[in-house]
């Protein structure tokens, strides 16, 4: 299979040196890329900034912002058999980014934010027949309920639900759901094992 994977947390710039981001380490996306490569698949990895080492054998596309990730994804989406959106894409970006560094003064600074494009929803809407789209849902309450809503509303083939405790952690608990199957729970296992399980399930969808 040709598998397209996104990883890392995007950066939304306020000015040339400051940005809004999140605590994503990119570890899950990179583990997925390595698991897919070991299973014999061709991998394109679209990655936001991360300290993770690039997996040998994958085609690496480096981006920073949510908009850049969306443009890169659109370029490769039609060529893939499966998309796994493991990146933590910012939900909001500054309405205007200053062209020069904002100087500190004694006044409050108010930032106006605008929504970013929902990349996962776009992929679910534009996928072709037999193309697989996998998403992640980070929820702090009503985990299964909210993840199932996301699975249906975004026309996904699989959803992996977890909590904020998974961010940056070596091990985490995830719950996996496809439209026609019951929930599968993996409790406090390494992201390498989680990735292996996800790739194995993708091969059976």
Annotation, overall tally of beta strands = 12
Report the total helices.
Answer: 5
Query: Low-confidence parts lasting 5 or more residues at pLDDT below 50?
Result: none
Main sheet attributes: strand count, strand direction, barrel closure: 8 strands, mixed
Overall form: globular
Structural class by secondary-structure content: alpha/beta
Query: What is the name of the CATH architecture?
Result: 3-Layer(aba) Sandwich
The end-to-end distance, rounded to whole angstroms, is 12 Å
* Average of per-residue pLDDT values: 95
What is the name of the CATH class?
Alpha Beta
Q: Per CATH, what is the topology? A: Rossmann fold
Number of domains: 1
Structure description:
Helix content is 27%, strand content 29%. The protein is globular, with a radius of gyration of 17 Å. Strand 10 (158-162) and strand 11 (171-177) form a beta hairpin. The chain has one domain: CoaB-like (Rossmann fold). The longest helix has 12 residues, at 27-38. It is built from 5 helices and 12 strands. The chain is an alpha/beta fold. It has helices spanning 27-38, 66-77, 119-126, 143-153, 191-202, and strands at residues 2-7, 12-15, 18-20, 42-47, 59-62, 82-85, 92-94, 113-115, 132-138, 158-162, 171-177, 184-190. An 8-stranded mixed sheet has the order 5-4-1-6-9-10-11-12, sandwiched between helices. It has a two-stranded antiparallel sheet with strand order 2-3. It has a two-stranded antiparallel ribbon with strand order 7-8.
């Amino acid at each position: 299979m040709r598998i397209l994977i996104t990883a890392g947390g995007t950066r939304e710039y306020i000015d040339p040196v400051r940005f809004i981001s999140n605590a994503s380490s990119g570890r899950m996306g990179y583990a997925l890329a390595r698991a897919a490569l070991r299973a014999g698949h061709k991998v394109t990895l679209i990655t936001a900034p991360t300290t993770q080492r690039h997996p040998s054998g994958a085609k690496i596309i480096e981006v920073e912002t949510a908009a850049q990730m969306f443009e890169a994804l659109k370029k490769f989406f039609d060529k893939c058999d499966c998309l796994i959106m493991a990146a933590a894409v910012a939900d909001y970006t500054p309405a205007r980014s200053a062209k020069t560094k904002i100087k500190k003064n004694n006044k409050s600074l108010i930032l106006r934010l605008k929504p970013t494009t929902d990349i996962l929803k776009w992929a679910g809407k534009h996928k072709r027949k037999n193309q697989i789209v996998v998403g992640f849902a980070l929820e702090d309450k009503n985990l299964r309920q909210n993840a199932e809503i996301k699975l249906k509303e975004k026309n996904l083939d699989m959803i992996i639900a977890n909590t904020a405790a998974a961010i940056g952690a070596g091990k985490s608990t995830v719950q996996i759901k496809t439209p026609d199957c019951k929930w599968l729970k993996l409790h406090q296992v390494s992201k390498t094992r989680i990735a292996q399980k996800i790739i194995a399930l993708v091969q059976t969808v």
